Amino acid sequence: MSILFIFFALAVLGIIIAIVTGIKNYKEYKESEYYQITKLPYWKLYFDTGRLGEYDTYRCLCPIEGYKKYLFNCYVPKEDGTTTEVDVIMIHESGIYVFESKNYSGWIFGTETQQEWTQVLPTGRGKSQKEHFFNPIIQNKVHLKWLQSYLKDFHDLRFYSYIVFSMHCELKKVTLTSGEHYVVKREDILEAVSQNVSVSAEKMSKSKINEIYDKLYPLTQMGELEKIEHIENIKKRYDKPVSSNEPTKVQDKICPRCGGKLTLKVAKRGNYAGNKFYGCENYPGCKYIENVK
Predict the structure, then answer these.
(1) Which one of 20-24, 272-276, 285-289 scores highest in mean pLDDT?
(2) Which one, 139, 181, 205, 250, has least CB within 10 Å?
(3) Residues ≥6 apart with Cβ < 8 Å to 9
(4) Distance between CA 103 and CA 164 in Å, rounded?
């Protein structure tokens, strides 16, 4: 038997395994609560790192025991008429779990009160590059504030705040002091949430969980125009007008995907070399770009 034939047989086997795995994953996705709520096509899921992170968070939570319901991309109204988007919500017998999903790589540093956290990425030859992103705990505090306000008619609700990072990063030094928030990697979320579930003395009834779900579900079914308006409101909130005395100053802009700052950059290679664009400071975790108008 020649080496060429062995390589060919292994290649065919690999293709068969990939097809079988793909079919299995597709079927699992179509039957999931994530798909039932978002209606996001399977192929779009795997080309959107943010949505894929939300789906992976949901999959990790599925083994949690007890009655529960999930919500995704929930646009919760705020007092000023705008909305705040919550990535993943799990309504469980033990309480309401609010998850902010982050898909960063490298080393992560931050404290509970810092405005910005730091991502350190290796660049080769023992060197590294530092990037900064908005404190996700502060981001989730905003979600919790308006979610609690929206559910004010429900009494004695217990809320849990979770920041979930992908398996591609290392939480090098993350300091938490209040005991009100949890920062974990996605593969550790099942154990962390299970601990909350096990120590919870009071349990919500199924009827109450269903009532809360029915109250929030319409907020997950926003139309495309409403989603665009949500993004535009984020931009308006953080864009600062350019002073007439400072004609060369660049406006502060915010990424509509992750909340990081957009910085003015120049393409160094390819067909667009020399062109200016706004890139998210959280790259490569967030690859959002915006053309300079």
Answers:
(1) 20-24
(2) 205
(3) none
(4) 8
Distances (CA, A) of 235 to 78, 187, 199: 16, 33, 41
**pLDDT-wise least confident of 51-60, 205-214, 275-284:** 275-284
pLDDT digits (tens, 9 = 90+) for 10-41: 888 888 888 788 788 889 889 998 998 888 89
What are the start-end ranges of the H helices in 87-131? Answer: none
Give the HSE-up count for residue 201: Cα atoms under 13 Å, Cβ half-sphere. Answer: 1
Q: Can you tell me whether residue 103 is helix, strand or coil? A: coil
Cβ proximity of 38 and 193 under 8 Å? no
d(CA 63, CA 107): 29
* Token pair recorded at residue 7: 């390589």
Q: How far apart, in whole angstroms, are the C-alpha atoms of residue 210 and residue 216? A: 10
Place of tokens 């005395």: 245
User: CB within 8 A of 248, min separation 6: which ones?
Assistant: none
Angle ∠(231,235,239) on CA atoms, nearest 5:
180
Where residue 135 falls (left for φ over 0; alpha for ψ -120 to 50; beta otherwise) is beta
Q: What is the amino acid identity at position 274?
A: G
Cβ(185)–Cβ(168) under 8 Å?
no
- Between CA 64 and CA 69, with CA 65 as vertex, the angle to 5 degrees is 70
**182-222 pLDDT, tens digit each:** 999 999 999 999 998 988 877 899 999 999 999 999 999 87
Q: SS3 of 198, please?
A: helix
Q: Tell me the CA distances in angstroms from 264 to 31, 58, 64, 237, 261, one per residue in order.
A: 42, 35, 44, 19, 10
Tell me the average pLDDT across 107-125. 90
Compute CA distances 185 → 1, 4, 154, 168, 192, whole Å. 46, 42, 31, 9, 10
